[in-house]
Each structure stands twice: as structure tokens, then as C-alpha cells.
Amino acid sequence: MSRSSCMKKERQAILLEKLEHDPFLTDEELSEMFGVSVPTIRLDRLELGIPELRERIKNVAQKNYSKVKSLQVKDIVGELVDITLGQGGISILETNSKMVFEKTRIIQGHYIYSLAESLAIAVIDAHVALVGVANIKYKIPVYAGSKLVAKAEVKKAKDNKFIVWVKISEKNVEVFRGKFILVSLEKI
Amino acid sequence: MSRSSCMKKERQAILLEKLEHDPFLTDEELSEMFGVSVPTIRLDRLELGIPELRERIKNVAQKNYSKVKSLQVKDIVGELVDITLGQGGISILETNSKMVFEKTRIIQGHYIYSLAESLAIAVIDAHVALVGVANIKYKIPVYAGSKLVAKAEVKKAKDNKFIVWVKISEKNVEVFRGKFILVSLEKI
Q1: What are the HTH deoR-type domain coordinates in residue numbering (chains A, B) (predicted)?
Q2: Model ipTM?
Q3: Contact yes or no for A110 and B109 at CB 8 A
């Protein structure tokens, strides 16, 4: 076997491992990890039969939507990749150039807010929940093409009131955090 | 002249006055004011040559967009019907059934948030501004078809930091309020 095909086999083996550990790595992130071009990563994925990120996210999200009580699937912004009702969840939004401020190419805040708000509602163990109060902080501007990972944690659930914290990161750097106070309508 | 045509003339005269005072009254609001049906109001408007609400809002908004420095028109949610840069402004959003939570028919919070956020940015007298922090409160659920009027007031402007309050009402009842702390990028 030639040296380059040997390297390729090795790279593909590690790539499989990496994606098993974190199925939501982008082709760009993988290309940086291995020091190869994005088209090379795409070819690797093709040869290994690994679908593109969007598909991988959708496949995982599909299994989670049935667990959500408080929202319909169409009302969730981003893809829900993990959820434990009443405790927390994770959703992912791939940003694109339609979401930017035209002048700065920075993602408009309300897309990030919507990702956080709908996740905060989705993790609530109630049939209907609405946001009453939200205190939010945008920490770092986000540009198109970034993959935003939102993590929600239910901090308090008492009677018809819930407190949920949502933190959004890009490449493990926190870009947004918010505290949401929600009210379930069914018990009012 | 018959009694009914007399009443109609009178109603149309008052209708003109009402719309001069507040050009953003909906046909539904006018119908309630006069105790006549919505089709009657529409007919009145037709006879008086008054365009429908959407057109009236757009006509007024057109004159305001050129004043905005911090945003492109396409980035503004709702129609900007009044603005004094560095001081405040008013925008209007007509909600529709595409904006609701499927389960409850209540308008999703992030549409209301987006109206507030983009107005808060628009009123800033700077070329580029981003939200840093927002503290918001949803006071009353809003249903599709409602006309939301957002009013923003610049409370503080110092160096590259701005504090803007936004209050959103439906039929003069406050449904949302938010405090936005914004940062202008140009002076950083």
C-alpha cells in the first residue's frame, strides 16, 4: 500500500472515531483537525458512507421530537439533538447568510434568541408553556456559517413556573446566555 | 337625502377625522367604534379613497427608512412609522397565523422580541449597533391578527453604549416591555 493511502486509512479511522464521539462536527472543523482540505473530508465521508452534518443532525433530532410536550416540531428553531423533559436539552442551529445584518454580516440577535427561547420551552415538562421574562446576554458576535450549540438546563420547576438557563456556544466559546422564566398555561 | 345616506356621510366624515388622528386604526377597530360591520368600513374607505391599513403603514414607513443609520431596511421587523434618531421611534407589526404556536394559536415570543430588538437598534444614532444585554417581559399573550405597536425610547447614550426601552402594545394595552443595552461597533 502506498504511503498516502495508508495515511488516508488512518485518517478515516480517526475520523470515524471523532464523529462517533461528537456526531455534530462540521467538515470545516474536521478539516482543521486533520490539516487537510474540506473537499478531502467530504471524500472521506463519502467513502465511509457518513452523511453530511445537516443529515446527521436531522437523524438524531427525529428521535427527540416525539418527546417534546410543550411545542409542535415546526415551532422549534434549530434541530433538537438531545432532550430530557423537565431537566434539559441541546439543540443546534447552522447559521447562514440569510440571517445576517446586511451591513456587518453578523447574525441578527433574534435568530440566536429564537434558538434559545424555543429550546427553553421545549425542555419544560408541561403541555403548554410561554415565556414570561427573559434576561439575555449576547457575548460575542456570530457570523454566517457558524454552528451554534444551545444547551438548556431547567433550574427550577414549581407549580406552573419554570426557570430555564440557556447557553449557546460556537466551537466551545460561549456567545450567548439567557435566563428564561416560563409559565405553564395548563395549571393557571 | 335619506336617513341612512345621511348617517353614512356623517360616519365617513368622522372616519376621515379618526384616521387623520391615528392613520393606523384597523378596519376591525373602526367597525367597533362605529358599531357597523367590517365590510361597511371597507366600503367607506373605498368611497373615500383611503387605502387599506397595510398600504397606509407602508406609505408612512417609506419616508422613515432613509433616516435609519444603524440598519438596512430589510433587517427591520415590522414597519417603521416614526423615528427620531437618537431619541425614539414607533414601528408596527401586523401578526398573522404563520407566527403562532400551533397548539395555542398564541404568537411566538420571538416575533415580538424581533420587533422590539430591531426597533431598539434602528433608533440608535450610530452606523452599526448590536444588542449586548436585553431584559424583557411578556405581559399578555397575543393572538394572530392583532396589530402590535412598538415604541422605543433612547434612555441613555454615552460613548459607544446605549440604553433603549421598548414597549409594545395592542389596542393600548401593554403586552411586552424590554430594556436593551446596545453597543455601537464603530467606536470600539
Answers
A1: 11-48
A2: 0.79
A3: no
Question: What is the nearest CA distance from B181 to chain A, expressed in angstroms?
Answer: 9
Return mean pLDDT, chain B: 90
Encode pLDDT of A95-140 as tens digits.
999 999 888 889 999 999 999 999 999 999 988 888 999 999 999 9
Percent of chain B scored above 90 by pLDDT?
A: 63
A137 contact residues in B (CB cutoff 8 A): 132-133
Q: Nearest CA to CA, how far is A162 from chain B (Å)?
A: 15
Asked if A110 and B106 come within 8 Å (Cβ–Cβ), the reply is no
| Residues 8-27 of chain B whose Cβ lies under 8 A from any Cβ of chain A | none
Q: What are the two backbone dihedrals, phi and then psi, of residue A67, each rounded to the nearest 5 degrees?
A: -80, -25
User: How would you list the strands of the sheet with A129-138, edge to edge?
Assistant: A79-84, A88-94, A147-158, A161-170, A173-184, A129-138, B129-138, B173-184, B161-170, B147-158, B88-94, B79-84
